[in-house]
Amino acid sequence: MEYFSILNLHREPFSNAPDPDFFFQSRQHLTCLHKLELSLRLRRGLNVVIGDVGTGKTTLCRQLIRRLADDETMEIHLIPDPHFNSPSESLREIAGLFGCLPDPAASDERHVREQIRRHLFQKGVGEKKVVTLLIDEGQKISDFFLEILREFLNYETNQYKLLQIVIFAQTEFEQTLTAHANFSDRVSFCFYLGPLGFGDMKKMIRFRLAQSGAESTFFFSPLALWEIYRVSCGYPRKIIHLCHQSILMMIVRGRPGVGWAMVRSCSGRWNRAVPVKKGRGFVVAGAAFLAGIAIWGLISPDPLKMIARHVGSVRVEETVPSLKTGAEHGEMPTVLGHICVKSDETLGALIKNIYGAATPRLLREVMRVNPFIKNPHRIAIGQQITFPAVPATADMSAKTGYRVEISATGDIESAFRRLRLYNSEEMPLRLIPCWTPPGGLKFLLVVDEYFSDRDSAQRRLNDFQAEYPVAGRITNSWPEDTVFLSDPSTGAVKAPRTGRGGGF
Predict the structure, then answer these.
(1) Which of 302, 301, 59, 46 lies closest to 193, judged by CA?
(2) Alpha-helical segments (H) within 87-126
(3) What is the pLDDT of residue 41?
(4) pLDDT band at 151 (very low <50, low <70, confident <90, very high)
(5) Which of 166-170, 363-367, 396-400, 457-461 has the lowest mean pLDDT?
(6) What whole-number distance in Å separates Cα of residue 220 and Cα of residue 97?
(7) Which residues pair with 76 in a beta bridge?
(8) Would you say which domain of life the source belongs to (predicted)?
(9) DSSP β-ladder status, 403-409 and 429-436
(10) Residues 6+ apart with CB under 8 A from 206
């Protein structure tokens, strides 16, 4: 008997297969899907979707195939793994997909290319079809295959490209694009998939259970959902795996639902560095039980406020402090956001890159809002670290020089992702989080030095733009009502992936 039949479900709700039936239409995934379809129908050529492992790229690819499968004007082909040993192997694979593989006696690379070109003209011009090549695992694309794809993008009429290409790749593919400007400048549409927010995660879990035939979607208590989100950092693959393991444990233990302690028990794979103490476990588990009775079936959209409620004589906010994200522009935030720890990153290096310095006071503030961190020397890959908003006492009146702003974003995750990608010893960068009443919270990625004149700053920006496709700007002033959440006059870690950060 399958485990899901015990729960009166007709299919497995948390399978890790990229089943289009379980495609959850989060805002970012739906936006990406719509823009991809529009770009394909306009025949713009090259499209790229980039995201970390487990953000739903393959599922999105399968959903795109499903949406276009019944359209007679579309001809869709998929390469699930673009690792080829030679140019001739890759050409023959594509020709085989298109159904135009030449006779083996005349199958050298030149003849195969010619057959593909003729096929594209016949389909695109003669039959008015939109020929589309989807490539999953795009980070595996070799230089010679990239050059072949670039050549195919040259096949065009005066109005449109004859071959539409969509590449789904992990974040390493950004380096490939940077290293091949003659390919990256052909990108018509590029979309970055990020992790889900807490609200979307709840909706995704409910959706999967409903798709599996669940009459009730409340297998998971509110605190269990928050623990799933904290451990998974919002990445769909980790969410699905953790839900699967939690439901299995629920069945084995004969429990009616999944609670906080059960999720905690299943999360050791990503959270080995976090010790589970029995005393705190019983307190929080008891709080979860009482809170579950009070609000069962009503899951708050703000989990931090929900957890901060009083439960009997226990204040759960001692375990997870109540924080304001400052989404409203007129409200000063108490938290900058969350960062998922990557390989070789230390807490000290993260603090220094966000605040400009790694001081004992800043360390205390960070550990206060992350009570699960018992030893600042031990943080685990995949842990989600919350960074509080700590106003800095910065006097910028003496800073009369020009600065180079690479980008300005509204969330810390995308800003820090760019810092990881662009920062180097040759061109050191840093983040400056700041807040203004009209503009809200912003994260500025800037070159870590000031310039005495605009021309010098412009030359540095030009040097950076020669390496990376960014807009950037030169400025020498700050809004009068700016509240700095790091000291803009201090330096940052030169290489965030390797710095040890102030001894912790």
Answers:
(1) 59
(2) 87-98, 109-121
(3) 92
(4) very high
(5) 396-400
(6) 45
(7) 132
(8) Bacteria
(9) unpaired
(10) 217
How many other CB atoms sit within 10 Å of the CB of residue 480? 6
Question: Quick one: pLDDT at residue 322?
Answer: 43
pLDDT band at 315 (very low <50, low <70, confident <90, very high): very low
Check residue 428 and report its DSSP letter.
-
Q: How confident is the model at residue 84 (pLDDT cuts 50, 70, 90)?
A: very high
Amino acid at 293: I
3-class state of residue 7 by DSSP: coil
Which pTM value belongs to this model? 0.57
User: Is 288's pLDDT higher than 50?
Assistant: no
Three-point CA angle 123, 127, 130, nearest 5°: 55
List, edge to edge, every strand of the sheet that includes 440-447. 473-475, 403-409, 440-447, 429-436, 483-484
* Token pair listed for 476: 């020498």
487 pLDDT exceeds 90?
Answer: no
Give the length of the chain: 504
3-26 pLDDT per residue, tens: 666 777 778 888 888 887 888 888
| Cβ proximity of 441 and 433 under 8 Å | yes
Q: Would you tell me how many other CB atoms lie within 10 Å of the CB of residue 42?
A: 14
Structural domain spans, the chain: 27-193, 197-318, 327-504
Residue type, 446: V
DSSP state string for 220-287: B-HHHHHHHHHHHTT-HHHHHHHHHHHHHHHHHHT-SSB-HHHHHHHGGGT-TTS---HHHHHHHHHH
Token pair, residue 447, equals: 């070159």
% of the chain at pLDDT higher than 90: 23
User: Do the Cβ atoms of 337 and 325 come closer than 8 Å?
Assistant: yes
The residue among 248, 376, 251, 226 whose CA lies nearest residue 303 is 226
Rounded average pLDDT over 362-380: 86
Q: What is the C-alpha to C-alpha distance for residues 497 and 469, in angstroms, rounded to an integer?
A: 22
Any idea which residue has 């000031």 for tokens?
450
Q: CATH homologous superfamily of domain 27-193?
A: P-loop containing nucleotide triphosphate hydrolases (3.40.50.300)
- Residue 218 CA, distance from chain mean position: 27
Amino acid at 115: Q
Asked if residue 253 lies in contact with residue 317, where contact means CB atoms within 8 angstroms, the answer is no
CB 221, CB 243: distance < 8 Å? no
- Cα 262 versus chain centre, distance: 27
